[in-house]
Queue: 2 jobs
Job 1
Amino acid sequence: MQRELERLKEKGPELDIYDLNYKWMMDRTKERSAGKVLIKGEEVPWKQSRHGYGKQYMNGMNWHEMSVPGWMISVTNQRVLQRGMHTHKGGGRMLYVLDGRGYTVNNDVRLDWERGDLEILPVTPFENKHGHYNLDPGHDCGMFVIGYWPFMGIVAYETRQLTDSPDWKGPRNDEVYRPDDFVPEAAALKGYEVKLGRKPADLLDDLFLRRNRWRQQIANARWVVKETQQPQETNRMGIYRWYVHPAFTDVVARHILFWTHEIPPGSRSGVQKHQGGRLNYVVQGRGHSLLDDKRYDWEPGDLLMLPIKTGGVLVQHFNDGDETVRLAVCEPNWYDILGVDMAAGFEQIEDCPEYKALKKARA
């Protein structure tokens, strides 16, 4: 009996670093599989912060609860003339205007916007000193604010506060008011001029040539993509208005793709197989989505995530109301580096009714 008890107390084999790494990856898969797919806007509280009034949907504190971790997603609502001012070191944020009209001052450059426009902060070696102004104080001026940490972390992204919102009644936090030398002088360091001919002499010079082209592109690119300047298209999935697409070279950054998706009353989107990782914020209308035949009902203010899954996810959206559904859609632009198929395949399974009608009319 004693020997049997001793045998029960014996430990199993210890996992080596190789097996521990396997376990870590399997744990991340389990975490995503159990994570949230739909965040109900009514369950996310509005809060006044030192920067302004808004609600936080996703950030580093709740990624472990999500089927699509890594996103920094918030919605703001500004009725005062000016929110707080802060900096974006590294840049790369996107802001879709939900309501109102106003402008942003970024390093003394004024960027005007109105409902339906998309503001993009470029990725730069300098600080973006950033403030938003409401042209109609007393009226709603809201934004859907987007960031994706894998891109932000790689450029050493951080924020420091410059001024607090006039509505903030809390104490000053000196920790977030970083000193002016927050960005070191090395960020402004310039090397000697690299002489380049029509064809680079070597592959290192090819990188410098690409750098020069990128700098020229940013200097002439759009920081605000106007809704009125972006035509709608009827494609296999529905009625899209593209703001950032891999084919666009005239926007200041395209690390995150962005478009709006409209679905008329009584209609539906196409069916698509996708790797996952795409976010859909409900701007207008009510409906539901089928993700691998599981139903998710949504309304304005909700955030629907396409879960990242082995083999991908089948997605289709339906309009269940009397007004046009409008979704604000974003996903990382992995396509140029990982391929459009990624690891699941990018497939159209069924076309939307509007596209079928368009094809029939063209025939």
Job 2
Amino acid sequence: MENKKRLYSVIQKFLLTILLSLFFNSVFSAQNQKTFLLGSLQAEPGKTVSGWLEVPSGPDPATRIPVTVINGLKSGQVLAIISGIHPYEYPPILASYRLKKMINPEELSGTLILVHIAHLPSFQKRTIYYNPYDWKNLNRVFPGDLKGTQSQRIAAIITEEVINRADAVIDMHCGDGNEALIPYTYWMTCGDEKIDEKSRQMALAFGIRHIIIDSTRPKDPKDSRYLSWTAILRGKPSITTEYGHLGRVDEEMIQANVQGVLNVMKFFKMLSGKANFLSEPVWIDKYEVIYSKHDGLFYPIVKMGYYVQADQIVGYIEDYFGHLIEEVRAPFTGIILYIINTPPCNAGEPLFEVGHVKEK
């Protein structure tokens, strides 16, 4: 009997030690991770909080941006996922809402910021490229200006509240409502080896086979223009992804965006599990967007993903009476990354993009 009492006592002490260890480890981890502030939102460790980033009025109306902050119990990286810069690009937007429901903050290390629809006015009006109030392309006005037009103010709020708070950024896009586009990622290089390498690893982890090497972005931080480039010029590794096209919401397109983000999170040790990296990416070492010189109707004669020869006819433009204006040709031999697949074309707007595949 005495031996049994001793055994029970030892077991009780052992179990108590385990429970206390688990409790203090949980408390210690929570203490390591601080409450994350984003605008007026406060996400305590182990909590998910959604709300608005307010964009003040200016020469045109105020607006707001729907966001979610998932703050893990453990400390770690702050990763910002931004979708809806061009809000007719639906798969990344739907992916961001799915990620909100999937990520358990109690199993997360670090903080995930989800900007669900960066450009709500355009989403509501179903416009491609442009803000319906100031007719600007949001992804050409970064880092923004709080005293400027609505697009510039949206960019300024995203820069200040999201990019500046993050350790790394993924700007998720796809082919707009008029664009037939093969999946690809922009890997933008700035000359800083650490940032360039981290961005490269993010691109490989996201998992899209075609990766554009882009060293052409403007160097002036006050005129960075593009969201991802704004992050990079602020020392934050970043990529721009493109998966989906023509305003479609196919499940495969949504899932590709979800899985890409989850794998980058594993790369940053925000989630458990081993990150997978592309083993045989196709590197695009040069690209060129061909813009229309005319208003009229565009008729493509090749498809996205087709290889074309230099000077090959890619499509032609007719005027509003059906008269041929121009045969539009490829600037060099390469792959069609995207091509306009709806009839309207306007002078100064894109028709297609050609990429040159880097030799191994």
